[in-house]
Amino acid sequence: MTMADGQHAEKLGYLGLGLMGLPMSRRLLNAGYDVTVWNRSAGKAASLVEAGAKLASSPRDVATAASIIFMCVTDARAVEEVVFGSEGLAAAPGVGKLVVDFSSIHPDAARTIATRLRTANGMGWIDAPVSGGTKGAEGGTLAVMAGGDAADIERVRPYVLAMARRFTHMGPTGAGQTTKLCNQIIAGCAMAVLAEATRLAENAGIDAGRLPEALAGGFADSIPLQLFVPRMVQGIHSPPLGHIATILKDLDTVVEVARDTSSPVPMTSLAAQLFRMAKSLRGGDADALEIYKLSASQTG
Length: 300
Fold this sequence. Notes:
Layout: E1 12-15, H1 21-30, E2 35-38, H2 46-50, E3 54-55, H3 59-65, E4 68-71, H4 76-84, E5 98-101, H5 107-121, E6 124-127, E7 130-131, H6 133-139, E8 142-147, H7 150-160, E9 164-171, H8 175-203, H9 211-215, H10 223-234, H11 244-260, H12 266-282
Parallel strand pairs: 1-2, 1-4, 2-3, 4-5, 5-6, 8-9
Antiparallel strand pairs: 7-8
Helix pairs in contact: 4-5, 8-10, 8-11, 8-12, 11-12
């Protein structure tokens, strides 16, 4: 495949075919790229293989087949396993190859993993967490915030923009993860606040489902308002926009980084506790918007 600038397209890999990885991989295939995929449970790759993807048996095999390897897994422990496990990325020749990690992990973890991988086999690293949820992944409207070397960022830009609308270089390794934490402060607190507003509307006898229409264009308008409130009111939680455990992990990381940087985060701390309650009541795999159910009356 030849790209618009006349350069020959690189071979791509994608590790982790979950809520985000599956639709993101599909967009790369639809754009005509050569994509090799891997997932811990291979069954999730079936639809991608039908669409033209090659299925690898390990992360190492993906790194052998591809020169740019995208990854989206659950947490830092999963990243560590995929990179440094017995059949991990570090076991493949890595000079000239790049990993673009869409996972959301602690900025310090991103810096440590990047340094260890470069030492192990010369492979480069870009931390590139995303915002926009499953809807953004399916529609290619994600916002991606990246940390890493400027030349590496430009090398992967055309491929990332097959999956995202925005790709912003925020600084050196770890900067993308720090930016994602800022995003999660806003998104997590917005979920908690919108749940309050929606519950007040319902309890006070007005149609909460009309809040997005009524507030459109005003200072309270936002993508979360328009997307979250109807799902809360109508009880639409499948497929989830995101898991409670995921947002809680990110908010807990915010609190940790805030402590290390002497940054007051009272709103985020409260939101984290609300999601912790939601996790204990609804389960970590429940849709994050089920935070709305915390304020339901005993009879409602």
